[in-house]
From TrEMBL:
Residues 1-141 form the N-acetyltransferase domain. This is N-acetyltransferase domain-containing protein. InterPro entries: Acyl_CoA_acyltransferase, GNAT_dom. GO terms for molecular function: acyltransferase activity, transferring groups other than amino-acyl groups. It comes from the Eukaryota. It holds the Pfam family Acetyltransf_7. It comes from Cerrena zonata.
């Protein structure tokens, strides 16, 4: 059994993004705002169904597992937690899904194995170097959520 601490959205933003941005150089901060975010939004728009067609969407901003624990099902288990939460929150919703971005072909392959579909991809150039991004989307269907999957326990 693996125990994970569940952070609130406020915790995640406060501790994660602020710390992340503080550690970046001014050049990297500028690149983040002027290049990465702009290109990311373009990819996001290409990858998702029109907003009028969606009842609910979750965007997995960051999903990471320490190298020594990779291949143990933790990442996939975390995705299942999000799926289960979406089902519990919106039993009446007909169309809902999860969006993720990948920055390597191996991550794209991993998400494809987990049932995501490749919806958009781009190669972007910037003064700090070129980068690739892929946008993947997984539509949640009632019939697809009935299968058993690993249980992750959260501890406060």
């Amino acid at each position: 059994m693996i125990f994970l601490r569940k952070y609130s959205r406020a915790d995640t933003f406060s501790e994660g993004w602020k710390t992340f941005r503080k550690r970046m150089s001014s050049t990297l901060n500028r690149w983040w705002d002027e290049c990465y975010i702009v290109k990311r939004e373009e990819l996001f728009a290409q990858a998702l169904p029109r907003s009028s067609e969606l009842d609910s969407i979750r965007v997995l901003e960051i999903l990471g597992v320490l190298p020594e624990f990779r291949g143990c099902g933790i990442g996939e288990g975390l995705v299942h937690v999000v799926e289960d939460e979406m089902v519990a929150e919106g039993a009446n919703m007909k169309k809902r899904g999860i969006y993720v971005e990948a920055n390597s072909e191996s991550n794209v392959e991993m998400y494809l194995r987990w049932g995501f579909e490749l919806k958009a991809e781009g190669h972007f150039q910037s003064e700090l170097g070129d980068f690739d991004m892929w946008g993947l989307y997984k539509e949640l269907r009632e019939s697809g959520l009935e299968k058993e999957h690993a249980t992750l326990q959260f501890q406060p």
